[in-house]
Design brief:
Distance between the termini: 42 Å
Number of strands: 10
Strand order of the largest sheet: 3-5-1-7-8
Radius of gyration: 14 Å
Number of helices: 0
Strand content: 25-35%
Oligomer: single chain
Order of helices and strands: EEEEEEEEEE
Shape: globular
Length: 165
């Protein structure tokens, strides 16, 4: 069984992810869900898919599309037991021009991403902080809650205040 994220809106730059994990807890607590292997639509150079889910925030995956139409870039995991139990996604995206977290300078953020569970579009987060000239360089992790039967979807942004500005 599979869990994937894809870009819900078109982008003028490749998508980059330094860290991605799926959780059963609505607040992304506990251990990430286990999986057998990583799967993607493509990658560029040394920015291979395993770098997005290796637990190391200093490595990154970058999509193969340089101008990505909606749904053209995806990254996810295969071999997940009970993927329908995912309740939170923790993602650390790259910021174009910053080169942080092992990201290439050209890799960008997506402002809207979709969750696909077993290949079916399950939920779309439409209000993420996308790549703009005013993107907060301190933005590190985003926790994306997945709605369940009685839950509403939310997004939390965590800022690393230890970064020098």
């Amino acid at each position: 069984s599979t869990l994937f994220l894809d870009n819900a809106k078109a982008s003028a730059a490749p998508w980059g992810i330094a860290d991605l994990n799926f959780y059963r807890q609505h607040d992304c607590s506990g251990s990430p869900m286990r999986f057998a292997q990583v799967a993607i639509t493509g990658y560029q150079g040394i920015y291979v898919p395993s770098r997005a889910v290796d637990g190391n925030v200093n490595t990154a995956w970058m999509s193969s599309c340089t101008s990505c139409s909606a749904g053209a870039a995806s990254v996810g995991v295969v071999g997940v037991c009970r993927p329908e139990e995912v309740r939170c996604v923790k993602i650390r995206q790259c910021t174009a021009g910053l080169g942080d977290n092992g990201c290439p300078l050209t890799a960008s953020r997506m402002s809207s991403v979709r969750l696909l569970v077993r290949g079916k579009r399950t939920f779309t987060w439409r209000m993420m902080q996308g790549q703009t000239v005013i993107t907060d360089i301190k933005l590190k992790e985003e926790l994306l809650a997945v709605p369940g039967r009685r839950r509403q979807a939310v997004m939390s942004v965590f800022v690393d205040m230890s970064a020098e500005t």
